[in-house]
Amino acid sequence: MTSYGWLLIAGFVALIGITVRPLGGYMAWIFTGQCKSNRLLKLFERAFFRIAFIDPLVEQDWIAYAGAILIFNLAGLILLFSILLLQGRLPLNPQEFGAVAPDLAFNTAVSFVTNTSWQSYAGETTLSYFSQMAGITVQSFLSAATGMAVAIALVHGFARRSSETIGNAWVDLTRATLYVLLPISVIGALFLAFQGVPQTLDGPVTAVTLEGASQIIARGPVASQEPIKLMSGDGGGFFNANSAHPFENPAALTNLFEMLLMFLIGAALTNTFGRMVGNERQGWTLLGAMAVLFALGLCVIYSAEASGNLHFASLGIDQTASPLQAGGNMEGKEVRFGMAASVLFSNLATDTADGAVNGMHDSFMAISGGMLMANMMMDEVIIGAPGSGLYGMLLRAMVAVFIAGLMVGRTPEYLGKKIQSAEVKMAVLAQLVAPAAILILTALAVVLPAGLSALSNNGPHGFSELLYAYTSSAATNGSAFAGLNANTPFLNLTLALAMLCGRYLVIVPVLAIAGSLAAKKKVPASAGTLPTDSLQFALLIAATVIILGALTFFPALALGPLAEHFSTQQLF
Questions:
Q1: Is 311 within a domain?
Q2: Number of folded domains in the chain?
Q3: pLDDT for 188-207, tens place per residue?
Q4: For the segment 380-394, what is each residue's pLDDT rounded down to a tens digit?
Q5: Alpha carbon of 197 to those of 113, 216, 379: distances in Å?
Q6: Is 455 helix (H, G, I), strand (E, B) or coil?
Q7: Containing domain of residue 204, as a range?
Q8: Less crowded by CB within 10 Å, the N or C end of the chain?
């Protein structure tokens, strides 16, 4: 660990801290409908809603809201699946790629509609420009907007009193896309193009190397896809190497910019929540709990990677940090950025359910790989993707309030709303879905030949490869451990099943909770009410997340990364 590394981390945290309040205030202004006071936005919004046959004044109960979300996502799934199957007949295909195989097309369509971005393919050798732009990029916008809309519906549930409705899904989806995601993406695309990220519809070029050989260099409309890829939590790369590719991430400045995009909206939504419920400290408390979990994961990974690889040390390889080398375990790291930047990027990617990578997680130390999995196993509560991070943390906050209420013998309350059996059942259901999908599907994969045949490693590391894949899918993260041949019918279909469960079997209970809370009256605070806007409560939420995660996943982690870590220690 170096002073440069800690300076980079401190600078990143400071930049995020600066953006939280202004962006959070802007999104609160958007989602509370105050944007209608702006004549230009009001005119634009009215015209758009008229074209789309949307009446913004008609609100929906939670069932209608959930139905709209599910229908909207189903339409996106069918559209993207069709584009991939018909790719060979569609325009903007200078590489002349043919149709994507049905099982891979289904996996990919599910992946990007669910905000997962798992890729069982290499983008530059599989998808045309049309598939990338009209398929992948469009769903990156819409899947992020879906998460934001669900989060706002849950916030409405806390903020409203005796209401039968939680908002209008079509309005929330529209405002999230047009007023938040699109403007930031345009600014980000211009900046990345300025920094050298390609933006062209011309096909690949052929270069002659110094040895006289020919090399095909892929390019395309990359700059326009990068910001939304990172900001949306989708994380899917135009190139197979993702953000380790110099065309996606050409410099240290773009690397910092891309890391900021990952945390930008998720962190700011906590402030939006605080403003919409009338108490900004509530938002800071949630952000504080997220910060504790973020710091814990970062310290574990940075310490493990900076300590170096015992295998290399036994060979006499110098892994000490110096002015001439980054030091530590640099295998699989991006040498252009160094140890700290690669570690921070990977921790952010698994904290945010983004899935973008600028290093190879398969080459991290075993304990680091376990921590990356643990970040995802907490199921999008450490910032998370836009919207899903906020509602994931709110579910944990409700469980923490319920536990605290049991300890003191009171009916638990959160933001003036009594948390009763209906809300707790839905919260528990939403939090059990991802673990059940991860553990059941991993168990099937490690005993069936169709799962084992995809592995490139035996023993604990091979188990970690499968566990990571299903964890990444069910947590809608999409990053890969590598070393796994995921493009098989068995894995394409089972990973798609994990994605669908991890997304929609969480969204529906969350909206049910929103409807239940909106219908309740607010209860005045009393002497026995647990304060939920304090450091104490932030630590209680963080402890709840850690304890629940450990109880659920420790046995699986013990069979994979922990077993590999301790077996490695015994060799030296």
A1: no
A2: 1
A3: 999 999 999 999 999 889 88
A4: 788 888 999 999 999
A5: 25, 17, 32
A6: strand
A7: 18-278
A8: C
Instruction: Give the predicted TM-score (pTM) of the model.
Output: 0.92
Sign of CA dihedral 89, 94, 99, 103: negative
Neighbours of 312 (CB within 10 A): 15
Enter the tokens of residue 526.
Answer: 């009393």
How far apart (Å, rounded) are the C-alpha atoms in residues 463 and 447? 11
Choose among 343, 234, 476: nearest CA to 12.
343
List C-alpha distances in Å: 28 to 130, 155, 166, 195, 277: 35, 11, 15, 32, 10
Q: Is residue 266 in some structural domain?
A: yes
> What is the 3-state secondary structure of 258-326?
HHHHHHHHHHHHHHHHHHHCCCHHHHHHHHHHHHHHHHHHHHHHHHHHHCCCHHHHHCCCCCCCECCEC
**What's the mean pLDDT in 312-336?**
76
Closest to 231 in 3D by CA, of 59, 77, 23: 23
217: helix, strand or coil = strand
pLDDT tens, 213-256? 888 898 999 999 999 999 987 877 788 888 889 999 999 999 99
End-to-end CA distance of the chain: 22
Structure tokens at 102: 């049905």
> Which single residue is written with the structure tokens 């910092």?
256
Half-sphere exposure of 277 (CA within 13 A, CB side): 29
- Give the tokens for residue 4: 């440069």
Q: What is the DSSP letter of 382?
A: S
With cut-offs at 50, 70 and 90, classify the pLDDT of residue 570: low
Range with the lowest mean pLDDT among 97-101, 277-281, 483-487, 565-569? 565-569
CA distance 346 to 242: 12
Query: Does residue 447 form part of some domain?
Result: no
474 three-state secondary structure: helix
* Closest listed residue to residue 357, CA positions, set 369, 296, 527: 369
Residue 391: the pLDDT is 93
Query: What is the residue whose two structure tokens read 């529906």?
Result: 508
In a domain, 157, yes or no: yes
Task: Reply yes or no on whether the pLDDT at 511 is more than 90.
Answer: yes
The helix/strand/coil state of 446 is coil
Cα(562)–Cα(568) distance, rounded to whole angstroms? Answer: 10
C-alpha 40/C-alpha 24 separation (Å) is 21
